[in-house]
Amino acid sequence: MITDLSLLDLNKKYSYADYLQWQFEETVELIQGKIAQMSPAPKRIHQKVSGCFFVEMAQYFNGHPCEFYAAPFDVRFPKQRHDDKSIVFTVVQPDICVICDLTKLDENGCNGAPDLVVEITSKITRQRDFHDKFELYQEAGVYEYWIVEPLERVIYQNHLEGGRYRMAALVGEGEILKSLHFAGLEIPVSQIFQ
Q1: What is the per-residue pLDDT across 148-190, written as a single tens digit (0 to 9) for each?
Q2: pTM here?
Q3: Which of 75, 148, 164, 193 is the most exposed place for a label (fewest CB within 10 A)?
Q4: β-sheet with 144-149: strand ranges across
């Protein structure tokens, strides 16, 4: 059992089995086997936006067969490495995710691609959200990936089409975010950034 992040080699690739042995205070994600440190406690604006999304999602998914979760919640993507044939896991903690295939859920979180992922970005996480996670979610088959920019008060709505993300919309204040995957999931952007 590892109790301090400093005991790990940040250049090494790790598996999900390794991840389960870590018992330290820092929150990390595992992206294609590499440790990605998460920022310290989110800023107030992040928490407020996350809470507003949670309320909107709770209203829509109440009684719905799909389930939604807010961070911290592990989403695992297994992938085989070509160099030694061992399995390296990616483990991320999206701000919000929706899973419709309930067989993907277990006591540790979700094993496989959610149907919808929402990431609330910041200066610290921008590169990871717009590039690393964008590629990761696209490759894994997440149908919709929304990137929320609290400071700019806009939401980038990406939709999987032919195995690639296409930006379906860039929605801002006064507009309505409409899911392409979930009929009737419509969120006034002003409700998110109130």
Answers
A1: 999 999 999 999 999 999 999 999 999 999 999 999 999 999 9
A2: 0.86
A3: 164
A4: 67-70, 96-99, 116-120, 144-149, 154-161, 164-172
